[in-house]
Amino acid sequence: MVTTTKMHTNSNLGLYLVTDEASCLGRDFYWVVEEAVKGGVTMVQLREKSLSTRAFIDRAKRLKDLLETYNVPLIINDRIDVALAVDADGVHIGQSDMPFQAAHRLLGEGKIIGLSAEKQSDVLEAEHWNLSYLAVSPLFATPTKTDTEQPWELEGLQWAEMNSRHPLVVIGGLHTGNAREALQHGASGIAVVSAICSAPSPREAAQQLKTIITTPEPFK
Ligand code: TZP
Ligand code: MG
């Protein structure tokens, strides 16, 4: 297989938790995140679509304090202003959010910037930027987010791996049953919402995913 030389990343990909309070099944949001981190999550994205700016910042501050104890980076979804306000470790932007150059100018050097790629042209355009990672989104169809483009599926992921110099994170429908396949098709990191947030034990769910990510595939 042809592979491009991957850029070095300043982010700790691996097991990436994307938060969604509605997926936490009524349990305390911070408890779910802390359990997930204890289970091995390496990066957390605070994704809030309906909070006021004030409430978003309050939540981001509290989460930052929590994550700092574990040395786990906090990434803010969409909102560069919120990331700056709490001095988060980085941002995750989508195709209709602030463009990469503007986000980079505002954040300065040293911050993590991840971008979602929903289609092949997004992957090719992203070659112009020095992203920390590119998220192949969604990899599979997922009830957690239904307003998406066509899922990439494994063949699409493999295409992205061959055509991008960025480390790839996959999101959408990932769980213990398909994470290894995603890694084998070029993913450097696995991002999940429900596989951890909705699990009976978020800590055990994270541990199981982490084991898959850190255990090399047995030789066949
Ligand atoms: N972006 C693309 S799919 C998705 C997001 C935020 C949701 C992923 O949720 P799940 O439960 O891990 O499938
Ligand atoms: Mg967005």
From TrEMBL:
It holds the Pfam family TMP-TENI. It catalyses: 2-[(2R,5Z)-2-carboxy-4-methylthiazol-5(2H)-ylidene]ethyl phosphate + 4-amino-2-methyl-5-(diphosphooxymethyl)pyrimidine + 2 H(+) = thiamine phosphate + CO2 + diphosphate; 4-methyl-5-(2-phosphooxyethyl)-thiazole + 4-amino-2-methyl-5-(diphosphooxymethyl)pyrimidine + H(+) = thiamine phosphate + diphosphate; 2-(2-carboxy-4-methylthiazol-5-yl)ethyl phosphate + 4-amino-2-methyl-5-(diphosphooxymethyl)pyrimidine + 2 H(+) = thiamine phosphate + CO2 + diphosphate. 4-amino-2-methyl-5-(diphosphooxymethyl)pyrimidine binds at residues 45-49, 77, 116, 145. Binds 1 Mg(2+) ion per subunit. Mg(2+) binds at residues 78, 97. 2-[(2R,5Z)-2-carboxy-4-methylthiazol-5(2H)-ylidene]ethyl phosphate binds at residues 142-144, 173, 193-194. InterPro entries: Aldolase_TIM, ThiamineP_synth_sf, ThiamineP_synth_TenI, TMP_synthase. Transmembrane segments: none annotated. It comes from the Bacteria. Signal peptide: none annotated. Its cofactor is Mg(2+). Pathway: Cofactor biosynthesis; thiamine diphosphate biosynthesis; thiamine phosphate from 4-amino-2-methyl-5-diphosphomethylpyrimidine and 4-methyl-5-(2-phosphoethyl)-thiazole: step 1/1. The keyword Transcription regulation does not apply. Keywords: Magnesium, Metal-binding, Thiamine biosynthesis, Transferase. The keyword Nucleus does not apply. Residues 15-196 form the Thiamine phosphate synthase/TenI domain. Its EC number is 2.5.1.3. Condenses 4-methyl-5-(beta-hydroxyethyl)thiazole monophosphate (THZ-P) and 2-methyl-4-amino-5-hydroxymethyl pyrimidine pyrophosphate (HMP-PP) to form thiamine monophosphate (TMP). Belongs to the thiamine-phosphate synthase family. PANTHER family: THIAMINE BIOSYNTHETIC BIFUNCTIONAL ENZYME, THIAMINE-PHOSPHATE PYROPHOSPHORYLASE. This is Thiamine-phosphate synthase. It comes from Dyadobacter beijingensis.
